[in-house]
Amino acid sequence: MKIYTKQGDKGKTSIIGGRLPKHDSQIELLGTIDELNSFVGLARAELAYPELELELLKIQHELFDCGSDLSYIQLDNNQDKKLTDEETSWLEKKVDDWMDKTPPIKRFILPGGSKAASTLHICRTMARKAERQLTKCLDEKGVANPIIQQYLNRLSDYFFVAARAANAHHSTSDIEYIRGADVFRFYEKEE
């Protein structure tokens, strides 16, 4: 079997129900989700933290689900959606769990620390990029699975706390933005 088809040689690519230019906003979005998934794979390879590794593997499958749901020429199709509310709820629970396991912060932190955390910060920014591209695509093309937007928004939060957890696991401190003010008040415990 040959991996190349030569069908994209003229600047168009196939999705379910038709072909689009490779620069189409929907194709850009699919490419960014694929790029994000690749960085999640890199983050998994950098981690020595089995609990996080398993969560990232789950997320990689869910990113494929996002891509699947967005791979129709008609985004507002009646196909069964692969991504559901359950995945977003799971992310929210994981964000809360990891927040409880990381040191309190009051200021913005710089992306970095351990190599694993740095890679997770790249995942965070890629998730935000995918979210921005999704809103652009939806403005141009209409409705898609509404869960995807919620999922991508929570996913960037997840990567933020996962990066902090990776730093804590590797005994590496987060780096606070030195010219910033105290902005994170939700860490203050009520007495």
Structure commentary:
By secondary structure, the protein is mainly alpha-helical. It has one domain: Hypothetical Protein Ta1238, Chain: A, CATH 1.20.1200. The chain is built from 5 helices and 4 strands. It has a two-stranded antiparallel ribbon. Strands 3-4 form a two-stranded antiparallel sheet. Strand 1 and strand 2 (18-21) form a beta hairpin. Helix 1 (25-46) runs antiparallel to helix 2 and helix 3 (85-101) runs parallel beside helix 5 (147-169). The longest helix has 27 residues, at 115-141. The radius of gyration is 18 Å and the shape is elongated. The mean pLDDT is 88.
Notable traits:
mainly alpha, two-stranded antiparallel ribbon, Corrinoid adenosyltransferase, corrinoid adenosyltransferase activity, elongated, two-stranded antiparallel sheet, ATP-binding, Hypothetical Protein Ta1238, Chain: A, 191 residues, cobalamin biosynthesis
Please write out the topology.
Layout: E1 12-15, E2 18-21, H1 25-46, H2 50-69, H3 85-101, E3 109-110, H4 115-141, H5 147-169, E4 175-176
